[in-house]
Design a protein that fits this description.
Elements (H helix, E strand, L loop, with lengths): L2 H23 L19 E9 L6 E10 L2 E7 L4 E3 L2 E5 L2 E6 L8 E7 L5 E8 L2 E9 L1
Antiparallel strand pairs: 1-2, 1-9, 2-3, 3-4, 5-6, 6-7, 7-8, 8-9
Length: about 140
């Protein structure tokens, strides 16, 4: 090749390599677009709200005092008149699950709730034997 043709070929190869690198490195390898930042939730703190259903008085106030370490949740559930220790608890994938047994009851109370997008509200259901109900608490 002559000098002019060599420079044109070199320029073409550089142009081609730059174009291919933009194509390969500029592509979204996620296959579905970009995703936003992942929110990490933690339920440690005091939560207060209401519980209803079953034999509960309408609008009964409850307070959850929770401590989260990894996926394990410990703490207390406080009604208007009594406080109960959580006997098992977990928080994973935005779902809180806690259990406790009131001293006067033979039935364990199982609570399952989902935390809101802003991380300041948990709502869900509870069961105790054949009784069921709902609850909603907000971070204090």
């Amino acid at each position: 090749m002559k000098g002019g043709e060599t420079n044109k070929m070199r320029s073409f190869i550089i142009f081609l390599l730059l174009g291919l690198s933009t194509l390969f490195f500029g592509c979204d390898s996620g296959g579905g677009g970009t995703t936003g930042p992942t929110t990490t939730y933690n339920v440690t703190g005091t939560w207060t709200g209401t519980v209803s259903g079953g034999s509960m008085p309408p609008g009964e106030t409850i307070t959850l005092n929770l401590t989260q370490s990894g996926n394990v949740v410990t703490g207390t559930v406080q009604s208007e008149t009594e406080t109960f220790n959580i006997t098992s608890g977990s928080f994973s994938d935005r779902t809180l699950q806690i259990s406790f047994t009131p001293p006067e009851s033979l039935s364990q109370v199982n609570v399952t709730g989902t935390i809101s997008d802003d991380g300041n509200r948990i709502s869900g259901t509870w069961t105790a034997g054949t009784e069921t109900g709902s609850f909603e608490v907000r971070r204090v």
